[in-house]
Amino acid sequence: MRFLRFIKGDREGVAIDIDGGYRARFVGETAYPGPISLLARKSAGELARAADDLRTGESVDLAAVTFLPPCGQSGKIVCLGLNYRDHAHEFDFEPPAYPTLFARFASSLIGHGQHLIRPRVSDKFDYEGELAVILSRGGRHISQATALDHVFGYAVFNDGSIRDYQLLTPQWTVGKNFDGTGAFGPWVVTADELPLGATGLMLETRLNGIVMQRASTSDMIFGVAQTIALLSDAMTLDAGDVLVMGTPSGVGYARKPPVFMKAGDICEVDIERIGILRNVVAEET
């Protein structure tokens, strides 16, 4: 199944893919199933009933809606840095023996088709194409063997980074949380439609049509199951939480000369069997 979250006019809704078309329910409707982060919390039976209800909803033309981040209400958005060996090397870091973790906040996120915002205080706005994981249930001390049972689905993420601010301190939080810099979407594809752990999928980032990053999700140092297990040793994970799994080599900062995004640029992150996340860059006003 494929779910997306959107606004049409002044109504917010959730839609489900049906044979290439979409049908939706809206906030305020009796049977509205709730945001995708709430759908992720439902049992298999409850999710099936919600999906059946969505299929009887209003037909939606995606060209006439504004996409929202699929899981804007997530309690936690935990990101991995340096999770591809070649990317660690291009930053002159050793590949980590334990995940390099930082937090994203919902206030930094935009949906597919919305503008990525280059802030007025920096001209070093970089792209990072990544796989996002949405959890269906949480817990503590989750075993690696059962960790994938906790995954609701997968989406595409662009972890837009303000490099000069990111590298001002050893902690990356500020450079990863400027408003309008994290693109997320277009939709969530449920885990049953993809390989276990979303392994073996080709990830490609294009800037103005030029391929900047290309790698397989199998190249991640810490896969989805291992990441869930390690995180759950430290914190209680919850249904609807999002894990952003790191980017491969080819980022603009590491190129010679560096390549940073500017107003009018088109950035696309394409993950095989999941979708294409497309955003145009605009200057902060």
Commentary on this structure:
The protein has 285 residues and is mainly β. It has five helices and 19 strands. Strands 1, 2, 3, 4, 5, 6, 7, 8, 11, 12, 14 and 17 form a twelve-stranded mixed β-sheet that branches. A five-stranded mixed β-sheet has the order 9-19-18-15-16, with no helix packed on it. Strands 10-13 form a two-stranded antiparallel sheet.
**Radius of gyration, rounded?**
18 Å
What is the straight-line distance between the termini?
38 Å
Helix count equals: 5
Mean pLDDT: 94
This entry's quaternary arrangement is single chain
Which term fits the overall shape? globular
Elements, N to C (H/E)? EEEHHEEEHEEEEEEEHEEEHEEE
Tell me the number of strands. 19
- Which blocks of ≥5 consecutive residues have pLDDT under 50? none
The portion of residues forming beta strands comes to 35-45%
Main beta-sheet annotation:
12 strands, mixed
Helix content: 10-25%
Please write out the topology.
Layout: E1 2-8, E2 11-18, E3 21-26, H1 36-39, H2 44-55, E4 58-60, E5 66-67, E6 77-81, H3 85-90, E7 100-104, E8 109-110, E9 116-118, E10 125-126, E11 129-135, E12 151-159, E13 161-162, H4 163-166, E14 182-190, E15 202-207, E16 210-216, H5 224-234, E17 242-244, E18 266-271, E19 275-283
Parallel strand pairs: 6-17, 8-14, 9-19
Antiparallel strand pairs: 1-2, 1-5, 1-14, 2-3, 3-4, 6-7, 10-13, 11-12, 11-17, 12-14, 15-16, 15-18, 18-19
Task: Sum up the structure in keywords.
285 residues; mainly beta; 12-stranded mixed β-sheet; 5-stranded mixed β-sheet
What is the compact description of this entry?
With 285 residues, the chain is mainly beta. It is 13% helix and 35% strand.
